[in-house]
Every structure is written in C-alpha cells, then in structure tokens.
Design brief:
heterodimer, A: 325 residues, alpha+beta, six-stranded mixed sheet, five-stranded antiparallel sheet, 9 helices, elongated, B: 303 residues, mainly alpha
Chain lengths: 325, 303
Amino acid sequence: MSIQIQNVSKSFGTFKALDDVSLNIEHGELVALLSPSGMGKTTLLRIIAGLEWADQGQVRFHGEDATDTHARDRNVGFVFQHYALFRHMTIFENVAFGLRVKKNRSSEAEISRRVTELLKLVQLDWLAERYPHQLSGGQRQRIALARSLAVEPKVLLLDEPFGALDAKVRKELRRWLRRLHDEVRATTVFVTHDQEEAMEVADRIVVMNQGRIEQVGTPDEVYQNPATPFVYEFLGDVNLFHGRGYARPHEVELFRESVQSSIAATVEHVAPRGAAVRVELRAADGGATIEADLSREDLRALGVVAGDRVYVRPRKVREFEAKAA
Amino acid sequence: MAQSPARPYDLILHDAVLGSLVLEFPPSGPAAPARRSAREEPALVRGLLLAAALAFLGLFLFLPLAAVFHEALKKGWQVYLAAITHADAYAAIKLTLLAAAIAVPLNTVFGVAAAWAIAKFDFRGKNVLITLIDLPFSVSPVISGLIYVLMFGLQGWMGAWLQAHDLKIVFAVPGIVLATVFVTFPFVARELIPLMQAQGKEEEEAAVVLGAGGWQTFWRVTLPNIKWGLLYGVILCNARAMGEFGAVSVVSGHIRGETNTLPLHIEILYNEYQFAAAFAVASLLALLALVTLAAKSFVEGRK
C-alpha cells in the first residue's frame, strides 16, 4: 500500500516537530526517515500509525484519506524502539495477540498455526513458551516484529528498531530486516538517526532536519548529490572550501607542487583506514581542517608524512548559496 | 561503657586484614579502607541502632497489641464471646462491613480510572486532579466528617430539601458510607499512579495498533500489568475503611445498633467502663490488622 503525507504539521507547545511535511511512499518500498535525534521523525511515524494526530495536513493510504481513521483500524504494523512486548504474556501469546483481538477471530488451531509460522520466520520458534524478560534485546525486537506481522499489515513502521541494541547485533538485524522486507513485501518505513543503517537498508532515504524534509532520494543520490549543506554534513565527512564549497574527503586530491585553484596546506596526521588512508591537513590561509582520503598506492607515490607542505584541490565541489553557512 | 576498651583492639585487627589486601592489590589499595569505613558502621553502632529500633517497636507496637488480647481475655472466654456476639456488636460489625463493601469497590474503580487517565494520557488540569486525589490524606478526618454535616445536616445547605423528601444522610448509614468513601478515596489511585507511569503507555499503544479496542486493551494488557499493585492498594483501602474513626464519628450520631461502626462501638464500651468488652471488640480490629499485614507482605512479594 502506498502512503501519501500531505502538508503535515505538528507542534508540541512551542516546539515544531513537523513543519509542513509532504512525502510520497510507493507500494512495497523500504524507506528510512533519517535525522539527528529528536527531530520529529518519530512524530511523523506515529502520525502515519495513528498514534499521534497531526495539527494540520493529511495522511492517505493508497489514495484514501486515513487522517481520521483510528490507529486500530489502520492495519499497520508498528515496532517500538523498546519493543513494548506484553510483559505478562508468553512469546506465543504476544505474537497471537493481534489474532485474538480480531472481530472475527480465527480458530485456536489456525491461530496456533499462524503464530508458529511467524516465529519460524523470525527464527525463534523455540522461544514460544518463554516470557519477554527472559529474552535478549535482539530476540525481543524480532518477536516484536513477528507480533506486528501477525495482523498482515499493509504498512510496517519501525521506530529506531535497532537503537537499543549493541553494534554487532544491530548489523545482523539490519541485513535480516532487508531480507525480511524482500520476503514480506509490505511498505516499510523505519526511523533512524544512524546514517550507515539508512544507507545499508533503505531503498530511499528521507533526510529530515528541524521538522522539515531536506532531501528525498536513493542512498546514492543523497550521498553523491546532497541537496543542502545539512545533508552534506550529516551524511559522511565533508570539507568546506572558502566557506561555501563542499567536497567529500575522497573527492580531494593532493599535489607536491602548486596547481591551478589549489590551496596550500600542511599535513598534520596520516591515518590508515582499511583500504584507504585518511590524511588530515591544515589550510595555510585560514587554518581550516581538511580531510583527504587517498588510496595506499597514491599515498606511496606522493610520499607525504606529517609536517609536509602540500597543495590541495577538490576534484569536485558543490556550492550552496551564502545563507547555508 | 563497658565495651569501649575492646574497640581499639578491634580496629587494629581490622586494619591488619586490610593491610594484606593492600599488598595483594596495590592499585585499589589506598581507597579501600576509606570506602569500607564509610560504608559500614562499627558493630557497636549497628547494635545500638538495632536495639533502639526493636525497643521502640516492642514498646509502641507489640506491647499494645499483646495488651489488647490480654485485656480482652482477662475475664475469660465467656465474657469475650458474649461481648463480640452482643446485638450491638453484631450491628457494628455489619455496618463496618457494609461501609467497606461499598467504599472499597467504589474507590477501586475510581482509583484505576484516575490512575489510568493520569498515567496514560495528557490533558489539561492533570496536576489539579493529582492534588485533589491527595486531599483526603491532607485534611483531618474530623474536617471530612464536618463537611458532610455542613452539607447534608439539618442546618446544612441541603438539609431542608433532604428533610422535605424524608431522606436522612447525616446520623444515618448513608453518611457513614459517604465519609468512609471520602477518607479511603486516595489509596488505590496513589498506589497505581507511579506504577502505571513507570510502565509507560507503549504496551497499550502496541495493543491498539494490533487492533485491540479500549476494553480489550484494558482487560488484556493494562489490568494484568497492574494486578498486584492494585491488590495492594485494595488491601490498604479496606484496612482504612474498616478502621476509620474520625470522619465516621462526626457523621454517625452514635446510635447504638444503628449507626455505630466497630471503632465507634469500641469507644462507647470503653467510655462505659466495660473494658473487657471494649478490648474484645478491639481484638477483632487488631486481627483484621494482622490479616491485612500478612496479605500485604504476600502481595508485596509478588509485585
């Protein structure tokens, strides 16, 4: 099911969580809402779910106005950052909940079959009789996902789904979510403040800042062609030339001799980073820090060490209007 | 004090033990003795504190409790049984149970509703509601009783109207029930509000998104999560409902066999120098207290 968000605004007191946000999400897409913490992206997700009301604007599911539809009738799956499993129920009952509260309830055998199927999908069918507090964080989040899928939602919403987990589990679950999405094919929206997570998992990324959408695009687009300085700085490291030209570290070249439109700089630090080497420099004129990523071969050919005087030229520069700074 | 010469010796021993620790773990060594002494009081101080606490408890709690049963049974079982099976005592027991049977369910429902509203929703006037719930705790029970006399008494605001319709509230059973309800009003709500606030509303939200209606959410998610806290509040509420004296005393009128609750009946007997009978009836309330404590500690363990 596709989702259309039209001119949605939401304030909490004087704080503007969402400021005239419009967004189209296609059927079957996996979209990441990405912004630094506490910037309204969770609010947008909750408005889509019907857990929060927009002050203004509309939410449409597949073209149909759902703005006044109660959360229980929206048929969405919602996964909370802190899992929100029912603590007094077994894992089985947690997953069965959505099937049990349905108006025309299925038979006990049918519920049992479906729950087992979902637990197998998240590879945790052996935990059916346990209670939530007996599970690890990663297991709980997978159960939360299975529970939300029980009602066969057309839309799956995840609020910082991996935010409370440690780095390794997080990485595993990311890949797993991607595979699950390809299998289930529900329209999926997830909120994150982790750029890497958004890049790795999403079909499209919605970058938000201060209640507004800065840019919508594929991971490649938002990284290669950031629409605003905010997106440039938020998605990866960036160098600022002359106060308005932006270039990523891998888009910077180093020379021994001065070349056209290069600036002089001193090498401060050389740090290997996997396949590439990060060179930190200080511009001779203003003292701004510049970062350059070189391949190991290029570095060897150039032979720079800390303290050397070199010339820096961005291979590609993106300029924004002056107000950007 | 006789023991004091022993102290320095004690301390030296102590330090010697720590000294060996220092040798084994040089980095953490210097901080260890200071921390240890900061955390742990010397044995003498601990002993004194414990003795003081036990003496206080014995003097002010155990002794009176024992005295109640001792006085009640001083003149033998016959007198005891006669006192608690007397028609007036029987009427008082019935009235006390009636007041509790109305007040406790009413305040349970109210307490759950108020706590639910306060913990799970944001609305204007929330703080006012929280303050109002505490009112019966902060007001003297005598004042609570007087309010009802002023409202429903013969000279009160509604007195003339009530008389015209032949309705009696003050100096009758309805007044006693009302006073009991008022005084026991905060117990359940006060117990549940912090519990429900700590639990947050995510589980309820999860239930709603999964398609559960309001009642389904309440019965299947909220109530099971608060059941032990709720039971705890109900037990305390019940104990107070049965034991309340001040507010009930003001609205009762002390009509024997009609408007006397157990605590009031005890007072009357005592004032008439029927000590054995007074203590016999009092022992019933004391038993209730013991049962309450036992139930309370059981529920507390489960919470």
